[in-house]
Description:
The protein is mostly helical. The chain is built from 39 helices and six strands. Strand 1 (17-19) and strand 2 form a beta hairpin. The longest helix has 25 residues, at 180-204. It is globular and about 105 Å long. The model has no long low-confidence stretch (mean pLDDT 90).
Amino acid sequence: xxxxxxxxxxxxxxxxxxxxxxxxxxxxxxxxxxxxxxxxxxxxxxxxxxxxxxxxxxxxxxxxxxxxxxxxxxxxxxxxxxxxxxxxxxxxxxxxxxxxxxxxxxxxxxxxxxxxxxxxxxxxxxxxxxxxxxxxxxxxxxxxxxxxxxxxxxxxxxxxxxxxxxxxxxxxxxxxxxxxxxxxxxxxxxxxxxxxxxxxxxxxxxxxxxxxxxxxxxxxxxxxxxxxxxxxxxxxxxxxxxxxxxxxxxxxxxxxxxxxxxxxxxxxxxxxxxxxxxxxxxxxxxxxxxxxxxxxxxxxxxxxxxxxxxxxxxxxxxxxxxxxxxxxxxxxxxxxxxxxxxxxxxxxxxxxxxxxxxxxxxxxxxxxxxxxxxxxxxxxxxxxxxxxxxxxxxxxxxxxxxxxxxxxxxxxxxxxxxxxxxxxxxxxxxxxxxxxxxxxxxxxxxxxxxxxxxxxxxxxxxxxxxxxxxxxxxxxxxxxxxxxxxxxxxxxxxxxxxxxxxxxxxxxxxxxxxxxxxxxxxxxxxxxxxxxxxxxxxxxxxxxxxxxxxxxxxxxxxxxxxxxxxxxxxxxxxxxxxxxxxxxxxxxxxxxxxxxxxxxxxxxxxxxxxxxxxxxxxxxxxxxxxxxxxxxxxxxxxxxxxxxxxxxxxxxxxxxxxxxxxxxxxxxxxxxxxxxxxxxxxxxxxxxxxxxxxxxxxxxxxxxxxxxxxxxxxxxxxxxxxxxxxxxxxxxxxxxxxxxxxxxxxxxxxxxxxxxxxxxx
Length: 761
């Protein structure tokens, strides 16, 4: 029965049937693997010998190409069983070493690495290639299609003639066929195989057109025109066809196909420009990457009038077009235009640098003021860096051809401004994308300038850059803190080139020795904050470091709050005996509060951090002095929040007021007055919270009021219903005013308004 059964089992090993948006058949393939496993135990080697080639090839194909990990592992186990018991599978032991149970767990490892090793054995090469062509490049899952085409690229050196004479002619009709998935996979496969043949030809000094037939060259050239004539760039199909053909354009350009001054180049350029104009919010990042890569390769290969010199007419058209795109009201057109400008080769932007940088810098500034187009700002920042890296630095050069003393300050100004982008929307802190791009760009540009013209790096620019990086390295989001920390250390420890004018460089090298570049894990709060808080002792870094720590210590992530506050309090304990250092720290704290009093993203975490400081007696020296200016200033600034309608801000303000009660003198009366005002706040929840926290405050600081009335005050705070109507609550509050010897607030009615508010006389 083996003559009948084996062909069915081999067929079952690759059985897959599409149902709707997915497929069925994994259970059949798994069962077929089990049958092959049982064959190894049931039959003598001589009985299975006629079928070894079929079974071994089918099992290996399933082991490395199946979409389902269980099927891949089942096929690997069945292959191993046959190798062990039958001993007739070609190169069985060698293959098992590379394709064991664990190795086949990663599908990308299977397609990109294991297949190359197995294909080195000629018995399996063509069978694997044929399977990819027949069943994988037209697979319903786009990930499988893309992996299959990359696998074909890697397998080309093993069977170059077979690819050029058999596979490529078979793929080209599919590339313009009716099946969408087959068309998509075939275009990608044609691109990968052609490029692989070109790289192979470099080793033997053969052009790719000498390795494939002229019919194939013409067919490759005509793919775009046929798709365009059939209007297959429109609708859902266009979502797959546009990036696929852009990928084809890139690979054919890199393969130096002989299409210079051919009309097809105009068609390719039209496709790239049209794709930029039709980008929409649902577009994948891979589409944009394909687009930019295609434009860069196309310019490199086909737009040079002479080596290193651009075709001036095309240069003017493209640069003007993309600069105009930066002003588009549609965000994604701005993104595409910015990335297009960033990917242009050096000869295409020579003489246009000033114009390009002005457009990119303006887009960063204008869109940030409008608080929209976050992705466009991110891409513009990346493009600024790419343009600077391509044109290079010349201290006394022209701003039209290089980064020089005339434009370096403007470039740094915009990049540093982008590091303060904290735009938020329904997705959260989207400004972090811009900050991350700005950090990367500023590192690349700084290292470039330090090599060629360190004299144009002014001390003020370097100071602002290092302080901004220190702030980002102290913030709460692990990913961006890690990126900032690594950039900070990279610039600090850079020797060739060395970055000049770094403030407190010797102290920084003591805090961050060279070993920290590899050993320090900035993503881990337990490691990062014990280093970053040491920057508080360096005057030029203190403000920005403390500003970054504010959002970490006053945040809501437990691990970040714990380790950042622990490190901060450890630093503060170290300066408790140093009145000058503590005073300077207090002044910096007040400066941050004043600068961000209207910014809820900073002011609310700041109050949370201040509350923790007060609760941990970090300002005990100030508390022993009557009416210390630090407490007076903090109180004056906190009073601004009593009119706020943000519950979180009001609640944390109450906690801060209760913490300020520890300070001596007249300021204590003013703190009590603010708390008593909040007992009659329009929001019932605020009245209740104030009463509860005042009760806890009086338990903690028993010297605040006269012991004779302490019990009465505590009883009223705990027993009264502070959520009842305002008139009843006001009676209780006024009684507390009398007991605490604080004058009762008087009603103030604003002219033309029915509502009234309260204030102390």
